[in-house]
Amino acid sequence: MKKAIIDLGTNTFNLLIATVTSSGFSIIEADRIAVAIGQGGINKGIITEEAIERALNALVQFKAVCDKLQVDSVRAIGTSAIRDAKNKREFCERVFERTNINIEVIDGEKEADLIYKGVKWSHDFMEPAVIMDIGGGSTEFIFANKSGVLDQISLNIGVARIADLQEFSDPLTPEEVDVIENWLEQQAGAYFENKTCAKLIGASGSFETFYELLHQLDFPAEIVTFDLPINELKQLLSHLIFSTENDRKNNRWIATIRKKMVPIAAVKVNWIIKKLNIKEVSVSSCSLKEGALMDETSA
Question: Which pairing describes strands 225-228 and 103-105: parallel, antiparallel, or unpaired?
Fold first, then answer.
């Protein structure tokens, strides 16, 4: 049976199509479109008309791919920007009218659960680790070991929310980095108090960009987890934080959809490394959409 997963993220819509059996699945198509559904409204709790049109256009394209490949079912999952929007019902209705796709809007706990299931497919958790999934609207932290999830939280500290807080300089100033870190501290509250973890696993996304920048290679199109040398990563994060937009535009190893907000993502990763006293960092190619496929396999 062919099944499609559509992850309707705040910055990017991701499509994953796979043949699913009782014993597992094999991926036959993957695509992504930069939609920026949170642009202009994420901190106001709305999806703007312009964002709705971009979303509809992207989903029409995805639906055409699904129809061409004769997909048996489509599971579309709405996350942070959609679940927090006052007009999410109208948005979902318009999507259904245009594409016949039903959107399943999930809460942060379910989002974290799917992310863990996805990362677990590429990582064996022989030692405790914390997964970090940097989204546009939210960021999930999942503490896990070989027995399963120990603790998890979804925080509304996505890069799009931070970018919408104020007009930041190009490049960021040290004072603006302090502003972002202080805001992260306020949003996290007491959650990270008395928490430490030696290993951080980045769930695809921005961490794939870090891999490509460090290795000057395209991230492999396979189910893998790669180590990111911590000292080299820290140097890279510092460079990205204070890079100019022009620098990033001319860097082929930074995906177009991340050229604007990767300094904010770098601030967040640098913050959590310090916060949890991280000693090792890895990147998994898997995240929510792979976790949703795992759900379909076990269903």
Answer: unpaired
In Å, what is the CA distance from 298 to each residue of 23, 113, 225? Answer: 9, 14, 23
94-146 residue pLDDT tens: 999 999 999 999 999 999 999 999 999 999 998 999 999 999 999 999 999 99
**Tokens 């999934």 appear where?**
133
Distance CA 263, CA 269 (A): 10
Question: Could you tell me if 7 and 79 are in contact, meaning their C-beta atoms sit under 8 angstroms apart?
Answer: yes
Quote the pTM value.
Answer: 0.95
CB atoms within 10 A of CB 173: 12
- 130 Rama sector, left if φ>0, alpha if ψ -120 to 50, beta otherwise: beta
Distance between CA atoms of 152 and 171, rounded to whole angstroms? 33
Within 8 A by CB and 6+ apart from 34, the residues are 11, 12, 256, 257
Q: Are 153 and 112 in contact (CB under 8 A)?
A: yes
Query: Tokens at residue 170, please?
Result: 């190009």
The DSSP element (H or E) to which 62 belongs, if any, is helix 49-68
Q: Characterise 11 by phi-psi region: left (phi > 0), alpha (psi -120 to 50), beta (else).
A: alpha
Contacts of 190 (CB under 8 A, 6+ apart): none
Helix axes of 230-241 and 262-276: crossing angle, nearest 10 degrees: 140
For residue 5, the tally of other CB atoms under 10 A from its CB is 24
